[in-house]
Amino acid sequence: MTDWFITDPKFYAAAIPAVLLLGVSKSGFGSGFGALAVPLISLTVTVPQAAAILMPVLFVLDILGLNAYRRGYDLALLKFLVPCALIGVFMGFVLFRVMDAHWVAGLVGVCTLLFLAQRLLFPPRADAPPPPRWLGAILTVTSGFTSFIAHAGGPPLNAYVLPLRLPPFTFTATMAVLFFFVNMAKWLPYAYLGLLDWRGLGTAMMLLPFAPIGVWMGLRVARVIQPKLFYRLVHLGLFLTGCKLVWDGFFSGAHA
Asked: In this structure, what are the phi and psi dihedrals at residue 125, rounded to the nearest 5 degrees?
């Protein structure tokens, strides 16, 4: 029976907080910090395994998001974002085929640290001018790529969309629709790469109940915790996991 899911307690010690944080991010509080989920789980399994296990969890969260924000999205913006993001998904698929798992881990670590640097050095400003369209295309392609390798498409996309100053509901609804298409586009490539298996699916089912709990926590925590404290804790987590993945991917002699 244990062949149908991972039984290592160390895995769940990392995976449960990761899924909770993913749910918190999807709730709209701490938006973007779902990027921590794959790096955190990758402390116990490989990056490809972590990404594959989270696929069913993301599907459920996406359906919940679509149900909550099925109206109010910016259709014109989506017509620009979706094709660019799908190009990034394809690029992620191609690189997954040729890169060693350690290099993928290192790349995810680099993306994690770059995201952290972006948040700390270039925080979103309400008066920031809208970025040029060509930069939006590059950032959205990057978003599709990082979403494919680590379900971390939010950070580069936010760098383009936040300065557009969309109404909060329109922003959230547009992101919900966009990432529904992006995440759905990953299923066939993941299957082709052999990343999806019954053990991973069984493990995802064990984690699934924590996803809506994370959404609920995000809504509750937003009312009681100081955002500055929350972000500091998540920043620390991003820094530690990013450094660990970079070390494992590029500097550890274990795979030399």
From this structure: -115, 135
Q: Which segments of the chain have a pLDDT < 50?
A: 1, 254-256
pLDDT score for 183: 93
For the chain, give the number of residues. 256
What's the total number of domains in the chain?
1
pTM surpassing 0.85? no
Q: What is the DSSP string of 80-92?
A: HHHHHHHHHHHHH
| Residue burial 129-161, b: 16+ Cβ < 10 Å; e: rest | eebeeeebbbbbbbbbbbbbbbbbbbbbbbbbb
Cα 73 to Cα 255: distance, rounded to the nearest angstrom: 46
Q: What does the pLDDT read at residue 240?
A: 76
DSSP calls for 187-249 = HHHHHHTT---HHHHHHHHHHTTHHHHHHHHHHHHHHHS-HHHHHHHHHHHHHHHHHHHHIII
Q: Tell me, what amino acid is at 23? A: G
Domain that holds residue 146: 2-255
Contact 232, 85 (CB under 8 A): no
Decide: 15 and 31 in contact? Cβ < 8 Å: no
C-beta of residue 206 within 8 angstroms of C-beta of residue 5:
yes
Q: Check residue 112 and give its pLDDT.
A: 72
